[in-house]
Amino acid sequence: MTLDTARTALVVVAHHRADSLTAHMARLATGRLAAAGYQVDVLDLRAEGFDPRMTAADQPDWDDRDKRYSDEVHAHMARMSAADVVIAVFPVYWVGPPALLKGWIDRVWNYGFGYGRSTARLAGKRMLWLGLAGAASDDPIVREMQQALENQLSQGIATYCGFAESSVRLLLDVEGQPQRIDAQGNLVIDDALVGGAREAHYADLDRRAAEFVDAFAAPVPA
């Protein structure tokens, strides 16, 4: 497969630290996509200095869907347009995406580009939201977290913007110290994993992330 015919992917990293587990998972996703034959563009929002706060230049004008936004935002729009698939890798904060990712959506998935046209400019693209959460896999909040993220990210954003497919996949227990809310509403934190148990735990997180990305990267049946 040549670069001219390769499928294209945009991996969006939404974390403030390059040494974070989120950044590690983004690198893993990039490697899996490349191995599957994708030409990958990595957009590390913090490393590239993206400011998630809305600006006057990028505020939607409901009377002009062809408004010229800032050069920075148009550059990000071009990178999205060039991608067949988009993977956002992010930590889950308060059962939602961090401000860095939400602000990128606010500024870039903007009126006239992400929505507001009879034929969506993002139509046909596929989206994977890969979230990292500290909640233990047996915490009842996980079901609510999954549903809340699906409602916001898949239904409220990606589907609204014309994506052909959007799914949320969660990596749980990422703190290496399982935590949950008990029946009385108290936060319960287990002992931190150490030694071989810790290594096995993070190896399993890598395995699960690879499975998520590989399933997403597989060709869509005609």
Question: Could you explain how this protein is built, in words?
Answer:
- This protein has 222 residues and is an alpha/beta fold.
- The mean pLDDT is 93.
- The chain has one domain (8-217): 3-Layer(aba) Sandwich (Rossmann fold).
- The strands form two sheets. It has a five-stranded parallel β-sheet, with helices on both faces. The chain has a two-stranded antiparallel sheet with strand order 6-7.
- The protein has helices at residues 21-35, 71-81, 99-108, 141-159, 195-217, and strands at residues 8-13, 39-44, 85-91, 126-132, 165-171, 179-181, 187-189.
- Strand 4 (126-132), helix 4 and strand 5 (165-171) form a beta-alpha-beta unit.
- The chain has five helices and seven strands, in the order E-H-E-H-E-H-E-H-E-E-E-H.
- Helix 1 crosses helix 5.
